[in-house]
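dumping this here so i dont lose it
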């Protein structure tokens, strides 16, 4: 073989092995900046005067794991929100509740970064979202009086209140249970996930000498996510959620003739919630926060809208979507790739289009999503 032919052959092989280099343009890099830094500091739980107090966080953690909050004392928050699964439960729909449920258990990592809670945003604080499961017939099926009565004789609880100068006999049942929810809210604010290989990759833009093992496939997937896929529009910011409600066309039937209308009922729940920030139990009375709650309005597009989920640590929280109807990340990508824009309920979501990605592009997107998990 001639030297020249050998040279060409070598060049060919090195291109196969080392050849592909993916370059991020300045405009891509400035978009990516909006997805840093990580980890972040989670803002205080709105209306929660105990948010940020270490003793309240510790007590909240204990309560979170205590079945005393449920009617028959067998179900704790942790029965559904399991720490080993990103505080979700690994099932499409919860199995541990007092009755069948129609929604997937949300993971709770980074939850305090959200503004509205639940798939439908029916709660406006972590503490309101913590009170609801105790009272919900499909979750812990208890009531205010029952929870209060049991806690008044729960030693670790009464001791902790005493140590922190809270006179339990001065609290009526409702205030006592709201206070419990606020301790749990304080705890949930501390659930922040760690740095991922995606975060390290972004940091390497400023420190090019860092030795990195960020797969090329993930880099190609990233280009799609922040490019023609338009995924970043809704999954925006360091937590990969813009905190708003969108319709991506997932079915919202829960059984024959029954629907789960999503955001529409969320607004209804918020408006009727005596424990919202607009109610009597707001412990900080921040005017701007109250205004956010009182200015929520119904819109025609609310049916079939769900809060954009975060995409961090998805590897721990399968299955996916509000009803747990998609098993794997590949199923999710196949769904987006095949989306039929004509079937979307709201015309507002023109950002979604059917792209029919190739096999390789689909795998690249999955690979990219995987790098948003700690491992
Ligand atoms: C039976 C299972 C179950 C139990 C028990 C349970 N949850 Fe949940 N949790 C869920 C489901 C399902 C959702 C989604 C509900 C919705 O969208 O309406 C959820 C949603 C939440 C959210 C909103 C998360 C977000 O991303 O907005 C918070 C916060 C939460 N739960 C906290 C708690 C706390 C605190 C307790 C205990 C007091 C608790 N949960 C008990 C199943 C459960
Ligand atoms: C119009 C806003 C919007 C766009 C654009 C969008 N998403 Fe989503 N995404 C959502 C909403 C809303 C949900 C929850 C839908 C549901 O539960 O029915 C979701 C769910 C997901 C989930 C499941 C997460 C979980 O915890 O259940 C993944 C993964 C995901 N999207 C990835 C992507 C990717 C990849 C793209 C780009 C191809 C994309 N999304 C584009 C709004 C959007």
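and the seq i came up w/
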């Amino acid at each position: 073989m001639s030297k020249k032919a050998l040279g060409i052959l070598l060049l060919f092989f090195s291109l196969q092995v080392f050849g592909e280099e993916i370059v991020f343009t300045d405009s891509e890099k400035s978009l990516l900046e909006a997805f840093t830094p990580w980890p972040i500091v989670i803002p205080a739980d709105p209306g929660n005067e105990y948010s940020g107090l270490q003793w309240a966080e510790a007590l909240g953690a204990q309560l979170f794991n205590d079945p005393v909050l449920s009617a028959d004392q067998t179900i704790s928050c942790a029965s559904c929100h399991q720490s080993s699964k990103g505080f979700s439960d690994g099932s499409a729909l919860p199995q541990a509740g007092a009755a069948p449920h129609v929604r997937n258990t949300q993971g709770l990592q980074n939850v305090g970064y959200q503004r509205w809670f639940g798939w439908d945003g029916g709660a406006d604080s972590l503490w309101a979202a913590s009170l609801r499961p105790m009272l919900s017939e499909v979750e812990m099926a208890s009531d205010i009086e029952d929870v209060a009565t049991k806690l008044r004789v729960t030693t670790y609880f009464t001791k902790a209140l005493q140590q922190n100068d809270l006179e339990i006999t001065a609290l009526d049942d409702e205030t006592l249970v709201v206070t419990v929810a606020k301790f749990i809210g304080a705890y949930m604010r501390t659930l922040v996930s760690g740095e991922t290989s995606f975060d390290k990759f972004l940091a390497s833009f400023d420190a090019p000498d860092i030795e990195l093992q960020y797969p090329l496939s993930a880099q190609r997937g990233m280009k799609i996510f922040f490019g023609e896929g338009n995924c970043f529009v809704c999954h925006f910011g360091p937590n990969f959620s813009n905190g708003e409600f969108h319709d991506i066309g997932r079915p919202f039937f829960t059984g024959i003739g029954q629907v789960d209308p999503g955001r529409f009922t969320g607004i209804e729940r918020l408006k009727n919630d005596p424990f919202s920030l607009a109610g009597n139990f707001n412990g900080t009375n921040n005017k701007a926060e109250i205004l956010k709650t009182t200015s929520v309005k119904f819109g025609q597009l609310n049916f079939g809208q769900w809060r954009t989920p975060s995409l961090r640590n998805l590897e721990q929280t399968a299955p996916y979507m509000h009803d747990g109807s998609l098993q794997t990340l590949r199923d999710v990508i196949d769904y987006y790739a095949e989306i039929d824009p004509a079937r979307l309920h709201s015309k507002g979501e023109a950002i979604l289009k059917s792209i029919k990605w190739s096999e390789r592009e689909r795998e690249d997107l999955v690979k990219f999503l995987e790098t948003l998990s700690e491992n």
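The mean pLDDT is 92.
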